[in-house]
Amino acid sequence: MAGVKIHRIVVGPFDTNCILVEDEASKEALVVDPGGGVDLISERVRLTGVRPVMVVLTHGHVDHCAEASAIATMYGIPIAMHRDDLLLYQHMDVQVEAFMGPAAATRYRGAQQVMPTVFLEHGQLLKVGRTNARVIHLPGHTMGGIGLLFEGRPDIIVQGDTLFRDGVGRTDLYGGNWEALQSSLKLRLFTLKPDTIVVCGHGGDTTISREKVDISW
Ligand SMILES: [Zn+2]
Ligand SMILES: [Zn+2]
Q1: Which residue, of 24, 34, 150, 216, is most buried by count of CB atoms within 10 Å of its CB?
Q2: What's the pLDDT score for residue 77?
């Protein structure tokens, strides 16, 4: 049974994992979190021979979105995200200035950024080739954080900065909320199959069973 293949490209000053999720049957791919490294991403697309069909943002932080517009333009594809992070995306210049300084923000100021046109909701199925990803809304690190769950042996979830190998996402940035993060972990991630592979926004992969703790807070 063909499934999905995960291609990781580490991009930008925060070593963000940009993930190409390839549907092996059709070679269609989602470009998840293009937070930098347009050349690295396009090179990997060429080498793997995949056909990008959509940019998907796990959340609206600049280290996951900075090159969404460039990639969407390059391949003529739409950008998808959860509506609750749209404001973060629309204020990319403010985020770039805060994290990378005013000079870096210039190209985002008044620039014609391609805006997200596909808004993903909890439980929705997102089709890529012959595969369906289930959208899991994971508020906490930001209000519009999402994961994409791919069924297989084992299941795989691509979920940005909510859960890391040996840690959880910070909640002190704009849109962060510790109580919401706890609920997302407890109700929506730790209830997945224990052997589910967790692809994180930074660093290596992990599994649900490795990170699962009893949340009694
Ligand atoms: Zn983040
Ligand atoms: Zn991040």
Answers
A1: 34
A2: 98
The mean pLDDT of the chain is: 94
Predicted confidence at residue 190, as pLDDT, reads 97
Specify if 157 maps to a domain. Answer: yes
Q: Is residue 141, in this structure, part of any structural domain at all?
A: yes
Q: Residue 48 is part of a domain; what is its CATH number?
A: 3.60.15.10
Angle, CA 142 vertex, CA 136 and CA 144 arms, to 5°: 45
Number of domains composing the chain: 1
What letter would DSSP give residue 202?
Answer: B
Does pLDDT of 10 surpass 70? yes
Identify any residues that bridge with 167 across adjacent strands, giving them in sequence order. Answer: 164
Q: Give the Å distance between the CA of 161 and the centre of ligand 1.
A: 5
Percent of the chain with pLDDT over 90: 86
| Structural domain span for residue 185 | 4-211
Helix 68-75, helix 38-48: angle, nearest 10 = 40
Whole-number Å distance, alpha carbon 2 to ligand 1 midpoint, is 31
Residue 90: inside a domain: yes
Taking ligand 2, which is a single-atom ion, which protein residues have CB atoms under 5 Å away? 63, 161, 201
In a domain? residue 217: no
C-alpha distances in angstroms, 91 versus 6, 87, 95, 213? 30, 6, 7, 35
Ligand positioned closest to the Cα atom of 17: 2
Confidence of residue 215 (pLDDT cuts 50, 70, 90): low
Q: How far is the CA of 167 from the centre of ligand 2 (A)?
A: 13
